Amino acid sequence: MKDNFSTVKSNLILISVAILIALLSMYLPLLSLFTLSVTLLIFKGGNGNSSVSLSIFFMAIFFALINILKMPESDLMNYIDYYRQLSNLDFYDAIDFAYLNIRPSEIIFRMYYWFFAQLSSPVYLIIFASTIIMYYTVIYFSLRISRFYIGNVILKNKYTLLMSIIWCSFVGITFSLTAHVVRQYLGFAVFLFGVLFLLNKRSFLGVVLIISAGFVHNSMFLFPILLLFSMVFHKYIVKKVVFIPAIIIAYILSNYLIMLQGSFPELINRGTLSEWSSVLIFIDISLLVVYGYLYQDFNRIIIVKYFNAFLILLILFLVLFNNESLVFKRYYYFFDIIRSALGVLIIGKLIQKFNKNSQLILMILSISISISVFILRFYKSTWDYGSYYISIMFIDYNDFLLRLDELKVY
Length: 410
Fold this sequence. Notes:
mainly alpha
């Protein structure tokens, strides 16, 4: 009887929330998507992969809608111009078409843009699609890699699941760059798809995708090399995960991070690396040290060995090129994936130390911090999204469509 009462109560709450989301969706598209994503995790999070995938998908759409409101400038402006010029070219002309720094060898990126251009779709559609691909891939990969460390701890606990997805979405991924450095982030997505195929023991497809990432953005050709070295020489690169903090110390001493300058809000708000790199590096160093401490005894697992070896090689590469601004930034962007994955692993490990009530408090605290960091960055950002502070969440359909109409001239 008690179980039946609990089921009825749960169903009534679910129906009430569904009605609320339906009402929100009629007026506030962004807020309704965010609410829908969170609701799926709270009520269905531990009941299967489909609800988790749907939640990630809705969260990705949420950020995609924000990104298409961004006023084009710099690289994004160039990509939009390139997109429009491709609409008048046939396939072979598009492949040979020389445009700024888009290299002839980046053939997959050219094909991807040409395909969308032939649909005669609004230019923001490709920004929308690209953002969804990037967000979904990074979040899914972060959750998938955790299973090799702690099994299904993340997926079976709705608190850890919600914290993990919020962490990846609001802190791990630099949302403004996903609409700005499109080529490189798409390259990351293809590379991660390849790694996911390898993890699922589909080696051929995995290798093809990992190599293909370099034909989206040429900088990605480094990652198959790092991955190969990690898999072949992991026992020489990593004896114990605790070695990671030693490399971090070397990184600090490499004269790149000497001191934090300015106030925290002024540093953490920017979408460009040069404006807030010190804070990002500080956060990433902290994550690596905590990860090294929590998982120092996990090196017996082969996937963990590969991951740790890859991490160390990437960090050593960044140390080596820390004075080469362009190279450093280009490869430090990949830390969006590392930051997301390490955050998920730390959440999954720490949550096991608390009871249910403490987990709930921890979830509320961590989500509040994650969203606050996002709002702070958004509020202080130099990028123009047509809204300020948290008001972007409450943009209604009319204002949303008006904003898109304003952007048609770009």
